[in-house]
Amino acid sequence: MASKDQVILGYWDIRGFAEPSRLLLHYTKTPFTNKLYHFGDAPDFKREEWLKEKNSLGLDFPNLPYLIDGDLKLSQAKTILTHLGRKFKLMGNNERETSLIELLIDQSNDLRQELNNVCYRAINFDAVSKKFCDETLPIHLKLFEDFLKRQGKKWLIGDNLTAADFQVFEYLDHCWILSNDNWAEYPKILAYMKAFRELPELKKYLESEHAKRPINGKMAKFGGKAVQHEEKKKEEPAKTDESEKSATT
What residues does the GST N-terminal domain cover (predicted)? Predict the structure, then answer.
């Protein structure tokens, strides 16, 4: 039985929608039990590990992820992240900042849901992922790039991290893994993500357990195994008749 001070975060053994909260807990050096559930193998990918416990945890709305924080039991990823944000004073210094943090959490969730549709629901994955990377993702990236430019701060809201940073970084990183572009058009995002990866409180975790955990469940068409970003090599322009002629003279 969990002690009243014990923190338990339950989720699948993937990064998915719980990783922002895991990052926050690691950043704040909060001892917690990282309760992991595993999918069965193909073709059924059974969820028995979770289902046999689902209704015995005392959750009002049983779902993954869930958080048990002493006698408080929560589900829903955003609720968990904002609860932890308030607990560790990472929800801004005033009402305006809090509202912007909540906006950024919702905005980045929209991006992750779009990525989910690609990774889990696409029938023709290659075509759908290409359209996502070529058309949908740039729209989102420009919005975040412009926001960072307007703010002009080290992090999203100011010179200190907030709950939003853990989710925005994580979900941008999911898209970075899928994308084979170098994001050169988004220098603020690249600098932001680089600075986040170098955080002393998170660097070791990001390079170890975090990097080894897949972003999606094993039934996904992409991200069901831990993969890294691979930049697509630019194709050399085809030789014209004139270039071929000059090469021989």
Answer: 5-92
